[in-house]
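INFO  loader      accepted 1 record
INFO  loader      residues=332
INFO  predictor   begin
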Amino acid sequence: MSQLATSGKPTRSHTALRLVETRSLSRTDWLAVRRTGIGGSDAAAAVGLNPCKSPLELWLEKTGRDAELTLPDPNDTTLPVYWGTLLEPIVAAAYTQQTGNRVRKVNAVLQHPTVRFMLANLDREIVGVPGVQILECKTAGEFGARLWRDGVPEYVQLQVQHQLAVTGKQAADVAVLLCGQQLAVHRIERDDELIARLISLEAQFWEYVTTDSPPPADGSESADRALRCLYPGNANAVDFTGDRQMSAVFADLVTVRAEIEAHGQQEAKLKQAIQQAMGDASRALFETGEVSFKRSKDSHGVDLKRLIADHPTLASQYAITKPGSRRFLVSV
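INFO  predictor   done
INFO  writer      dumping tokens
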């Protein structure tokens, strides 16, 4: 598993602390509790291995600076998070139906007994099965299912190892509902060497939180969103002419951009060579792959310029203000 990969060795288990009971806890209060530590779903982001969330964006959440970030609405039926929450009890019931293993809710935020920033919210605990104690429920649509072709994605493995670390348990089952019609069950055994490395890396992230110092940006779209939220911008200028390190970074940026532009031109030339050879064909096969070059379906829209010209009063009635964003422009 990338730089965290190890071979596991069993260790003596411990019992997690029940930090907060969640049976009657509001979502707002639950989110507030989550800010006090690193949960299982935070683990991959904390160590820089979450494909959707950077350490910097997670840091904004943990330090209460995420108010300007666009966060997923748990009630939006078009988002995976909505269906994941809605289908969790169904996935748990299907797991019991398929495996015969009984499960139950924990109804608490759990805390590691000695590493206090490590928290866990378990979907279910498995009852009366010696070899496995935790159930993690997942759902994956047509796009998300691709991430499960080779087994449990790395970010989910880290989530589960974090949960095993907090609880002291030895194994977990991950039940994933694929495309709404296939339940796959994967067993993840405790890996104590990986857990030790994970705790060390999570501690490094948590130090950024406790010292109120942002972690470095990692080049991801998530980090870009976080930077724009953290630094909305002003009219001031900062002078780096005497800073050799930042000047070297700028020089590297200029060089990389020139290389990207050159590669972009080469890509366009190669693409057009294939398009020209294809002629009117919509698909071309090659020794190592294929390409398609199809006309998309006609779309229908509204001619806003004509609409406003014919009905000018509508412009003021339906006008909205779109907030500006910072643009990064390079001049040499």
